Amino acid sequence: MAEAAIAAAVLPAVAPAVVPAAATGVACCGCCCGAAAVAGTAASADGSNLSAGRSNSGKLKSCLGIGSFASAQLDILQGLVFKHLGDPAEADNFAHDDYTKTSFERGIPRYEHPHLVAALDILLMYQANRRGRCCLCSCRRSFKHDPRTRFVELLKRWLRANAMNPNVGEDEVRRMCGLVRDLMNHSQMFPSRNTRSFMHTTAEVYEHLKMQLREVLQRDRTCAELAGRVLILSRNLISDALAYLLLAATDLHRTDELPSLEVVSLWQSLPAESNPLPRRADVAQQAIMRDAWLTHCGSLIAALLSMRWAFRLFDGKGAEEEASAMFALRDKSPGSRAVKDAEASPNSHKTDTSSPGGDVLTLIAHVKHEFKKNRFSSSGLAGPFREPGSNQGREEYLNAVEALYDLIYFLGEVFVQFHRISDGLGDYGMIRVSPWLHPFLDALIEKVGRLKASLEGLREAVDNELVLAKAKGRKVKKPVPTEYMTGRAHAAIERVIVSKDCHSTLLLQALEELKARSAPERLPHVIEGVSNACKSLQNVLTSQQFRARVGDAFPPVQSLDAPTGPAAPAAVLGKKGGQKALTDSAGFVEVEKID
């Protein structure tokens, strides 16, 4: 009702008003008056502000009241942007000069989503054909940053950014769809005299956004895509979890001097005498972190970073080969701990010779023993966590370290092999190994849940002992993390477990989706789809129309012998000791050894 009252009060005064050009700062086009000094003013075809923006709103308000109406339009649009995009900075920029008019060209060389490009073209046509109303006629005028232009530029920016994005997300499209739909509830604030009006254009854009949302929802992701997403989310989860453990409950102040806490960056700072990637080492960062890696907390993080599975997970084959060569040289050296461990317990599954500090699990047990003995001088813990009563926080810290150890092993040693199968054999391969994959995914989901629970417990302890205690004015035992450490730790844990789209939540969703996608029940559907595609292709290749187009040089099409059943490629996967293997048959057979 308030918007309608504003429109009713302002719009009648716009059309008939004739004010000297000097008074408004808006020059008449001269096309209908024959003189440059003819008095005139114009509302745009959509009733938007005539001038360059809010900088002239004072002059316009004093003459016609148009400035106040444009201000009301801008307030509505700004509120909608904040409501649907949820970014205060974006809404604030929308009210300033950040969304001035840009080119009428597409600005993208190619696209992935035709509906987004069609919406972009609609907006460009609207801007190119937009006209204003002069004294007695319509004439084309330049609108640079009035409310309508700002909103159109916001949409153009988003469309240009996502039209080429093959992985545009459902949430992104849904938010933009909601924004455009909500705007159409305020049509009385954006009146028009042209056929292709602002609201008409908005409605057409909304229709294409709805169709794009439908495509996103119906998109059938393959097992290979899901497996790749699992790896990406896992890297983010592990990297931010390690950063949180390095900062939140420790007194490792020199971490403030590190430019990045990502795993690939922390590798550069590992101790020179045990760095698995010496060619990537940064002497300056090693000097910064030398004392930190000698503490109990620092040694645990360094051990996790130095596992061979971490190299495979985070940096692929190159880093793994480089690290493996370095480990091999150290293992062959006289007095090598790896040699002694192998002689003492050659079949022990807990021996991790890739860690420069020895067995990670042994190191965890050692640190736990030191904490139980209240030996904290070289612990690296912040003051409050050195108190005897803070045993719960210390236990959560060590539980999180152990959960990360398991996750890095599961992902870097096991899951990457499933990813290779999905890359090579697609959905078919993942469905065939589902008797192995699904129990493994269940175990992986349990490990992610365990890490999440440990980090939640540690976060609660950090908040109680450090953040809330300081906020309430209580004395906090020193040493304590720096403000920069606290800020970085807070940002990391937000990404890991707190925010709506945190790493742990998205990872668990991706794991469940991969499990559903690789269900054995889908095997007949997959085989049928492949069989139908082969039959259709054979019919096309042998048709007279195709032969007429390719000529006699094209070789004769040989018939493909279709298998009698759901046969797999000639691949056998398995292990020693009676492990089931995948064969050419429909089922699994027991094998003694696989070469």
Quickly give the structural class.
mainly alpha
Pick out the low-confidence regions: 1-66, 336-358, 562-595
Average residue pLDDT: 78
Q: What's the helix-strand series?
A: HHHHHHEEHHHHHHHHHHHHHHHHEE
Helix count, DSSP H or I runs of 4 or more residues: 22
Quick one: overall form? Answer: globular
Main β sheet profile: 2 strands, antiparallel
Amino- and carboxy-terminal Cα gap? 79 Å
Helix content: 55-70%
Query: How many runs of DSSP E, i.e. beta strands?
Result: 4
Tell me the number of structural domains: 3
Give the neighbour order of strands across the main sheet.
1-2
Structure commentary:
With 595 residues, this protein is an all-alpha fold. It folds into three domains: 217 residues, no CATH class; 281 residues, no CATH class; 69 residues, no CATH class. A hairpin with a 5-residue loop joins strand 3 and strand 4. Helix 4 runs antiparallel to helix 5, helix 14 packs across helix 17 and helix 16 runs antiparallel to helix 17. The relative contact order is 0.07. The N terminus and C terminus are likely disordered.
